[in-house]
């Protein structure tokens, strides 16, 4: 409008921004000019300059905050574009600040062809227009900024892995993000407007939720607000499951709003429970192992040696009176000692075979295969040594498989042991051709699963009735 | 002195050696049992005067057998035996109705007679 009223040949909007040196200067932000080569040249020059506070026409207006009218810029001492203006036939200029609460936020400048007397009535009007324009710009900026915040807010809600549910003071859902949709099985459309209590809170806790909300609104006393807690929730199918919950009150004008961040922790709790149980079983297995060793020593070698001692005493007594009986008793001593040695050897091997420590898996498994009552085909054992815990686990997997094949698998004629190293893990696979149906939860197999899990590996038992049993473990070797 | 003796122990080698040793020293071994249930049944059937009873039996604790035996046959002298040392079991054995405890390493006719004479 101003352009038409004053017939401005060139008009420029200047805005303050930092220059390369970090100084705040006016930059030409947008321009308009008449189609004339000389005026276009002035416009080109204007597009390339900047002004510091107090410098040139825009700089002066920026500094003073007052509109200006110069009737002849070609004679103005503080007008650096003087020569270019003269060449373009531009003589008079008007310049007005655009003001807001933050001060001068922009400067508008216009040039007229030929000399025009200062319009003293118009200059203060220009100042007022600048204030109105400034408010308009600030409002527009604020709206744009709110739009940006809203967009960012939406993006965060959409990409959040946590369910985010916002509730008003009446306990109704006002926001239900995609993660909440996934966790609870309601669409946002279904959820918004409905009471939170009816949607995701188990029936038994709904009344407590309602009275808690009422109490908070009346007294400000909160039990759940602002702290993380674990609680049961319910989904659209009525499945009850544990969630981790944090509720915060949103600081907005008007009635209170609350946002709940929820995470389904069914899997986490299951993993923690399994870990606890696995640790407990490992401890129990270790205790049971010690008890078994004590029992084996007591029932076996210890009793054998007691018999030896008693027989030696008896033989000494009988030596003169009954040499034949003494000889018989010494024979028994010899047999008992041999038996004691065998039992101690077996016991030691069961605790941890020396050959495994000294020679590794190959000779240990070869020995195991040799002593087995069921024929064993031992495949290639990977070269080199593995960490002792991995070798021990591999050995005991083979031992357990052979023991089970001999004990349970009536009809197992053959056991095969295969080993390989794949992706940094030792793979142990032991299979038999017995009747299958092994008890995966039985002490031996459960203990092996725990042992392998403790090494960060995986353990599988495949034992369908009638189709043999296959144990497979993969254990990291690093 | 001849006394009728029952040996209750799951270790065959020990039973054999104990029987031979004690028989040579004047005892009459009337029977042997390898577990608690058989021991109780033999005590009913063979009426021994003394029962040598191992603490660790495969089917039940020897101390439980002692308690049961003492209740049904208070006249039978029960002597608990084990490869463990005497101090560990003396008190608990008498609490459960036994006359005493002998380590298997100490077992002999005279040691048995001495314990029973106390």
Description:
The complex is a heterodimer of chains A (about 475) and B (about 120). Helix content of chain A is about 50%, strand content about 25%. With about 475 residues, chain A is of the alpha+beta class. Chain A has a five-stranded antiparallel sheet with strand order 2-1-5-4-3. Chain A has a five-stranded antiparallel sheet with strand order 7-6-10-9-8. In chain A, helix 14 (about 390-405) links the parallel strand 11 and strand 12 (about 415-420). In chain A, helix 2 packs antiparallel against helix 4, helix 10 (about 265-320) packs antiparallel against helix 11 (about 325-350) and helix 14 (about 390-405) runs antiparallel to helix 15 (about 445-455). Chain A is elongated and about 155 Å long. The mean pLDDT of chain A is about 90. Chain B has about 120 residues and is of the alpha/beta class. Chain B is about 45% helix and about 20% strand. Chain B has a five-stranded parallel sheet with strand order 2-1-3-4-5, sandwiched between helices. In chain B, helix 2 packs parallel to helix 3. The longest helix of chain B has 13 residues, at about 10-25. Chains A and B meet through helix 10 and helix 11 of A and helix 1 of B.
Total of DSSP H or I helical runs spanning 4+ residues of chain A: 15
Q: Provide the β-strand percentage band of chain B.
A: 15-25%
SSE series of chain B: EHEHEHEHEH
Number of strands of chain A: 15
What is the strand tally of chain B? 5
Q: Largest sheet of chain B, described in full?
A: 5 strands, parallel
The order of strands across the largest sheet of chain A is: 2-1-5-4-3
Structural features:
heterodimer; A: 478 residues; alpha+beta; 5-stranded antiparallel β-sheet; 15 helices; 23% strand; elongated; B: 118 residues; alpha/beta; 5-stranded parallel β-sheet; 5 helices; 22% strand; globular
SSE diagram, text form:
The complex is a heterodimer of chains A (478) and B (118).
Chain A: H1 2-6, E1 10-18, E2 24-33, H2 37-48, H3 56-64, E3 68-70, H4 82-88, E4 90-100, E5 103-113, H5 122-159, E6 163-168, E7 173-176, H6 178-184, H7 188-191, H8 196-200, H9 203-219, E8 228-234, E9 240-250, E10 257-264, H10 266-321, H11 323-351, H12 354-359, H13 361-371, E11 376-378, H14 388-407, E12 415-422, E13 425-432, H15 443-454, E14 458-462, E15 469-476
Parallel strand pairs in A: 11-12
Antiparallel strand pairs in A: 1-2, 1-5, 3-4, 4-5, 6-7, 6-10, 8-9, 9-10, 12-13, 13-15, 14-15
Helix pairs in contact in A: 2-4, 10-11, 10-15, 13-14, 14-15
Chain B: E1 4-8, H1 12-24, E2 28-33, H2 36-46, E3 50-54, H3 62-72, E4 77-82, H4 86-95, E5 100-103, H5 109-117
Parallel strand pairs in B: 1-2, 1-3, 3-4, 4-5
Helix pairs in contact in B: 2-3
